[in-house]
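pls design
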Protein backbone atom coordinates (compact mmCIF):
# COMPACT_ATOMS: atom_id res chain seq x y z
CA UNK A 1 0.00 0.00 0.00
CA UNK A 2 1.45 3.39 -1.03
CA UNK A 3 1.18 6.48 1.12
CA UNK A 4 0.30 9.78 -0.56
CA UNK A 5 3.01 12.48 -0.41
CA UNK A 6 0.56 14.80 1.35
CA UNK A 7 0.19 12.21 4.10
CA UNK A 8 3.96 12.13 4.63
CA UNK A 9 4.13 15.93 4.66
CA UNK A 10 1.34 16.07 7.21
CA UNK A 11 3.14 13.50 9.37
CA UNK A 12 6.41 15.45 9.20
CA UNK A 13 4.57 18.65 10.08
CA UNK A 14 2.98 17.03 13.10
CA UNK A 15 6.33 15.55 14.16
CA UNK A 16 7.96 18.96 13.92
CA UNK A 17 5.15 20.59 15.88
CA UNK A 18 5.38 18.05 18.70
CA UNK A 19 9.18 18.35 18.77
CA UNK A 20 9.04 22.17 18.96
CA UNK A 21 6.43 22.11 21.70
CA UNK A 22 8.47 19.61 23.71
CA UNK A 23 11.61 21.74 23.27
CA UNK A 24 9.74 24.82 24.47
CA UNK A 25 8.57 22.90 27.52
CA UNK A 26 12.07 21.63 28.33
CA UNK A 27 13.60 25.10 27.97
CA UNK A 28 10.82 26.64 30.05
CA UNK A 29 11.19 23.99 32.73
CA UNK A 30 14.91 24.65 32.97
CA UNK A 31 14.21 28.40 33.12
CA UNK A 32 12.01 27.74 36.16
CA UNK A 33 14.93 26.03 37.93
CA UNK A 34 17.00 27.48 40.75
CA UNK A 35 14.43 28.33 43.43
CA UNK A 36 15.82 25.73 45.82
CA UNK A 37 14.84 27.22 49.18
CA UNK A 38 11.32 27.97 47.96
CA UNK A 39 11.03 24.47 46.51
CA UNK A 40 11.89 22.88 49.86
CA UNK A 41 9.57 25.22 51.74
CA UNK A 42 6.72 24.27 49.43
CA UNK A 43 7.64 20.60 49.81
CA UNK A 44 7.29 20.79 53.57
CA UNK A 45 3.95 22.58 53.17
CA UNK A 46 2.65 19.88 50.79
CA UNK A 47 3.89 17.13 53.12
CA UNK A 48 2.06 18.69 56.09
CA UNK A 49 -1.08 19.36 54.05
CA UNK A 50 -1.31 15.73 52.97
CA UNK A 51 -1.15 14.64 56.60
CA UNK A 52 -3.91 17.08 57.53
CA UNK A 53 -6.00 15.71 54.67
CA UNK A 54 -5.34 12.15 55.94
CA UNK A 55 -3.94 11.04 52.59
CA UNK A 56 -1.90 7.83 52.57
CA UNK A 57 1.67 8.50 53.66
CA UNK A 58 4.36 8.34 50.98
CA UNK A 59 6.82 7.02 53.55
CA UNK A 60 4.71 4.05 54.64
CA UNK A 61 3.93 3.23 51.00
CA UNK A 62 7.61 3.32 50.12
CA UNK A 63 8.43 1.03 53.06
CA UNK A 64 5.95 -1.53 51.71
CA UNK A 65 7.59 -1.32 48.29
CA UNK A 66 11.03 -1.87 49.82
CA UNK A 67 10.01 -5.30 51.10
CA UNK A 68 10.43 -6.54 47.49
CA UNK A 69 13.75 -5.31 46.08
CA UNK A 70 13.02 -6.76 42.65
CA UNK A 71 9.79 -4.77 42.56
CA UNK A 72 11.75 -1.61 43.37
CA UNK A 73 13.88 -2.17 40.26
CA UNK A 74 10.76 -2.80 38.20
CA UNK A 75 9.21 0.42 39.51
CA UNK A 76 12.37 2.40 38.73
CA UNK A 77 12.46 0.96 35.23
CA UNK A 78 8.79 1.77 34.67
CA UNK A 79 9.43 5.36 35.75
CA UNK A 80 12.48 5.68 33.52
CA UNK A 81 11.46 3.83 30.37
CA UNK A 82 7.66 3.79 29.99
CA UNK A 83 6.59 7.44 30.30
CA UNK A 84 7.79 8.86 26.97
CA UNK A 85 7.69 5.70 24.80
CA UNK A 86 4.10 4.91 25.81
CA UNK A 87 2.95 8.44 25.02
CA UNK A 88 4.79 8.55 21.69
CA UNK A 89 3.52 5.11 20.68
CA UNK A 90 -0.04 6.16 21.50
CA UNK A 91 0.24 9.35 19.43
CA UNK A 92 1.70 7.48 16.45
CA UNK A 93 -1.04 4.84 16.55
CA UNK A 94 -3.75 7.48 16.82
CA UNK A 95 -2.25 9.50 13.97
CA UNK A 96 -2.17 6.49 11.67
CA UNK A 97 -5.45 4.80 12.58
CA UNK A 98 -7.59 7.41 14.40
CA UNK A 99 -6.69 10.89 13.06
CA UNK A 100 -9.61 12.65 14.73
CA UNK A 101 -8.71 11.17 18.10
CA UNK A 102 -5.08 12.12 17.48
CA UNK A 103 -5.88 15.83 17.09
CA UNK A 104 -8.06 15.79 20.18
CA UNK A 105 -5.40 13.99 22.24
CA UNK A 106 -2.56 16.16 20.96
CA UNK A 107 -4.41 19.32 21.97
CA UNK A 108 -5.12 17.88 25.42
CA UNK A 109 -1.42 17.13 25.91
CA UNK A 110 -0.43 20.63 24.78
CA UNK A 111 -2.87 22.27 27.21
CA UNK A 112 -1.88 20.03 30.11
CA UNK A 113 1.86 20.47 29.54
CA UNK A 114 1.56 24.21 29.04
CA UNK A 115 -0.38 24.77 32.26
CA UNK A 116 2.03 22.47 34.09
CA UNK A 117 4.90 24.70 32.97
CA UNK A 118 3.13 27.72 34.45
CA UNK A 119 2.75 25.86 37.75
CA UNK A 120 6.49 25.08 37.74
CA UNK A 121 7.20 28.82 37.63
CA UNK A 122 4.64 29.73 40.28
CA UNK A 123 5.26 26.83 42.67
CA UNK A 124 8.67 25.14 42.55
CA UNK A 125 8.47 21.92 44.53
CA UNK A 126 11.13 19.49 45.70
CA UNK A 127 10.05 15.83 45.32
CA UNK A 128 9.62 13.68 48.44
CA UNK A 129 12.86 11.77 47.72
CA UNK A 130 14.71 14.98 48.65
CA UNK A 131 13.05 15.24 52.06
CA UNK A 132 15.62 13.02 53.72
CA UNK A 133 14.66 14.19 57.22
CA UNK A 134 11.28 12.46 56.76
CA UNK A 135 12.92 9.11 56.01
CA UNK A 136 12.09 9.15 52.30
CA UNK A 137 14.67 7.55 49.99
CA UNK A 138 15.72 8.14 46.41
CA UNK A 139 15.08 4.63 45.13
CA UNK A 140 16.33 5.41 41.65
CA UNK A 141 19.73 6.44 42.98
CA UNK A 142 19.94 3.58 45.47
CA UNK A 143 18.72 0.70 43.33
CA UNK A 144 18.72 1.98 39.74
CA UNK A 145 18.08 2.68 37.04
CA UNK A 146 18.39 6.37 37.96
CA UNK A 147 16.88 9.11 35.81
CA UNK A 148 18.40 12.12 37.56
CA UNK A 149 21.86 13.09 38.67
CA UNK A 150 22.78 15.10 41.73
CA UNK A 151 20.45 18.17 41.84
CA UNK A 152 23.33 20.60 42.39
CA UNK A 153 25.12 19.45 39.22
CA UNK A 154 22.18 18.41 37.02
CA UNK A 155 22.01 20.84 34.09
CA UNK A 156 19.64 18.75 31.95
CA UNK A 157 16.49 18.77 34.05
CA UNK A 158 14.64 20.77 36.67
CA UNK A 159 14.23 18.47 39.65
CA UNK A 160 12.23 21.06 41.58
CA UNK A 161 9.14 20.71 39.39
CA UNK A 162 7.26 17.90 41.10
CA UNK A 163 3.80 19.48 40.80
CA UNK A 164 1.88 18.54 38.79
CA UNK A 165 2.96 15.02 37.93
CA UNK A 166 3.12 14.84 34.15
CA UNK A 167 3.94 11.15 34.46
CA UNK A 168 0.45 10.65 35.86
CA UNK A 169 -1.20 13.26 33.66
CA UNK A 170 0.17 11.89 30.40
CA UNK A 171 -0.64 8.33 31.47
CA UNK A 172 -4.27 9.33 32.02
CA UNK A 173 -4.37 11.00 28.60
CA UNK A 174 -3.00 7.85 26.95
CA UNK A 175 -5.55 5.63 28.69
CA UNK A 176 -8.51 7.89 27.91
CA UNK A 177 -7.44 8.25 24.27
CA UNK A 178 -7.10 4.50 23.72
CA UNK A 179 -10.38 3.76 25.48
CA UNK A 180 -12.16 6.39 23.37
CA UNK A 181 -10.54 5.25 20.11
CA UNK A 182 -11.13 1.52 20.49
CA UNK A 183 -14.20 -0.64 20.95
CA UNK A 184 -12.90 -3.89 22.47
CA UNK A 185 -14.62 -5.23 25.57
CA UNK A 186 -11.32 -5.12 27.49
CA UNK A 187 -10.34 -1.57 26.56
CA UNK A 188 -10.93 -0.44 30.14
CA UNK A 189 -7.72 -2.24 31.03
CA UNK A 190 -5.83 0.73 29.59
CA UNK A 191 -6.59 2.42 32.92
CA UNK A 192 -3.99 0.13 34.46
CA UNK A 193 -1.32 2.38 32.94
CA UNK A 194 -2.16 5.52 34.97
CA UNK A 195 -2.83 3.44 38.09
CA UNK A 196 0.56 1.73 37.89
CA UNK A 197 2.20 5.05 37.05
CA UNK A 198 0.69 6.66 40.14
CA UNK A 199 1.94 3.88 42.41
CA UNK A 200 5.37 4.03 40.76
CA UNK A 201 5.92 7.79 41.04
CA UNK A 202 4.84 7.83 44.68
CA UNK A 203 6.64 4.65 45.72
CA UNK A 204 9.93 5.73 44.16
CA UNK A 205 9.76 9.10 45.92
CA UNK A 206 9.43 11.20 42.79
CA UNK A 207 5.99 12.66 43.49
CA UNK A 208 3.43 13.34 46.20
CA UNK A 209 -0.15 12.15 46.03
CA UNK A 210 -1.15 15.80 45.61
CA UNK A 211 1.03 16.05 42.50
CA UNK A 212 -1.17 13.44 40.86
CA UNK A 213 -4.35 15.12 42.10
CA UNK A 214 -3.15 18.44 40.66
CA UNK A 215 -2.41 16.78 37.31
CA UNK A 216 -5.88 15.24 37.12
CA UNK A 217 -7.42 18.60 38.06
CA UNK A 218 -5.57 20.42 35.28
CA UNK A 219 -6.46 17.61 32.91
CA UNK A 220 -10.14 18.02 33.73
CA UNK A 221 -9.90 21.69 32.77
CA UNK A 222 -8.10 20.78 29.52
CA UNK A 223 -10.79 18.26 28.57
CA UNK A 224 -13.46 20.87 29.25
CA UNK A 225 -11.69 23.46 27.08
CA UNK A 226 -11.49 21.14 24.04
CA UNK A 227 -14.80 19.36 24.66
CA UNK A 228 -16.11 20.52 21.27
CA UNK A 229 -13.26 18.68 19.52
CA UNK A 230 -14.22 15.25 20.82
CA UNK A 231 -14.64 12.89 17.83
CA UNK A 232 -18.28 11.98 17.38
CA UNK A 233 -19.49 8.71 15.88
CA UNK A 234 -21.62 9.61 12.86
CA UNK A 235 -23.58 6.95 10.98
CA UNK A 236 -22.08 6.62 7.50
CA UNK A 237 -23.59 4.11 5.04
CA UNK A 238 -21.05 1.46 4.11
CA UNK A 239 -21.84 -1.48 1.85
CA UNK A 240 -20.63 -4.52 3.76
CA UNK A 241 -22.94 -7.13 2.32
CA UNK A 242 -26.54 -7.74 1.33
CA UNK A 243 -28.91 -6.85 4.16
CA UNK A 244 -26.08 -5.66 6.40
CA UNK A 245 -26.61 -2.80 8.84
CA UNK A 246 -24.59 0.33 7.99
CA UNK A 247 -21.56 0.72 10.22
CA UNK A 248 -20.59 3.81 12.19
CA UNK A 249 -17.39 5.65 11.49
CA UNK A 250 -15.79 8.21 13.76
CA UNK A 251 -15.53 11.41 11.78
CA UNK A 252 -13.53 14.47 12.80
CA UNK A 253 -15.39 17.64 13.65
CA UNK A 254 -14.78 20.00 10.77
CA UNK A 255 -13.63 23.50 11.64
CA UNK A 256 -15.88 26.25 10.24
CA UNK A 257 -14.50 27.96 7.18
CA UNK A 258 -13.48 31.62 7.53
CA UNK A 259 -15.69 33.96 5.57
CA UNK A 260 -14.13 36.79 3.72
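designed seq:
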Amino acid sequence: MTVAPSRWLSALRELGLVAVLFLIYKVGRLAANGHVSEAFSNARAVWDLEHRLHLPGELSFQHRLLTWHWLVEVANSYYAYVHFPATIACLIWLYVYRPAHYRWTRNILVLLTGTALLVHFVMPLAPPRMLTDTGMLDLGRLYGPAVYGAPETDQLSNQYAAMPSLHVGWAVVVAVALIAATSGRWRGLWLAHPVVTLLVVVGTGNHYWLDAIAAVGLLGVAYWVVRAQYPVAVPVPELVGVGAVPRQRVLPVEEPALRG
